[in-house]
Amino acid sequence: MAKLYHVPLSPFCRKVRLSLAEKKIECELAEERYWEQDPDFLRRNPAGKVPVLKIDGKTMAESAAICEYLEEKYSEPALMPKSAESRYEVRRLVAWFDDKFHHEVTSKLLYERVNKKVMKQGFPDSRHVKDGARAIKYHLDYMAWLLDHRRWLAGDVMTLADFAAAAHLSALDYISDVDWHRSEAVKDWYAKIKSRPAFRGILADQVSGFPPPAHYADLDF
Q1: pLDDT for the residue 87
Q2: Range of 31's domain?
Q3: What sign results for the dihedral spanned by CA atoms 103, 164, 167, 142?
Q4: Both 98 and 57 in a single domain?
Q5: 88 and 193 in one domain?
Q6: Number of neighbours of residue 128 by Cβ within 10 angstroms
Q7: Is this prediction's pTM over 0.90?
Q8: Does residue 63 form part of some domain?
């Protein structure tokens, strides 16, 4: 069985978990306090980051590379389209959420409000929180624009781009930092992806000291 070293609210870990679950790959979850720099964990990934996946006799790091490996090795159900142009668009949007969205929103909200407390790194920086709260509006509006032209974020079928976005938004939703009233299109998109069987494990997450809001696991939120 595969084994994933993860942190429950890490969007990068959640993206890998969603890919594994969608492809029905059984996987044991091992919560890893990567910030403690445990020597055993550093042997698995010298970069000291999660996720780390042990599968097929290999130990893999970096969420984008892991998801691409899973797509190539376990091709069904497909999370990447067939044409080069469509695959480019998926990769562009995965990078958008894992780079731009993460830098402007996730790191400013989730990391300030949750990670700092868990890692005992002090109190949230209110300037960062305000910046993140402002930036997420822009990103939600961009998603709404995409969904006005497409059924899913990257096109007419659900792809890894949707999982990347949902991984970040679900982590932020756990701490009630998403205004789902801002866009009906984004809310409907999230309701569709949230109702998939692959999402059940994520909706069951519980972080000590941070109980989720009542609507978090509600499929009719």
Answers
A1: 97
A2: 2-73
A3: positive
A4: no
A5: yes
A6: 16
A7: yes
A8: yes
pLDDT per position as a tens digit, 6-60: 999 999 999 999 999 999 999 999 999 888 888 888 889 888 899 999 999 999 9
Read off φ and ψ for residue 208, nearest 5 degrees: -55, 130
Three-state SS letters, the chain: CEEEEECCCCHHHHHHHHHHHHCCCCEEEEECCHHHCCHHHHHHCCCCCCCEEEECCEEEECHHHHHHHHHHHCCCCCCCCCCHHHHHHHHHHHHHHHHHHHHHHHHHHHHHHHHHHHCCCCCCCHHHHHHHHHHHHHHHHHHHHHHHHCCCCCCCCCCHHHHHHHHHHHHHHHCCCCCCCCCHHHHHHHHHHHCCHHHHHHHCCCECCECCCCCCCCCCC
Question: Where among 73, 99, 120 does a domain terminate?
Answer: 73
Token pair listed for 152? 């899913």
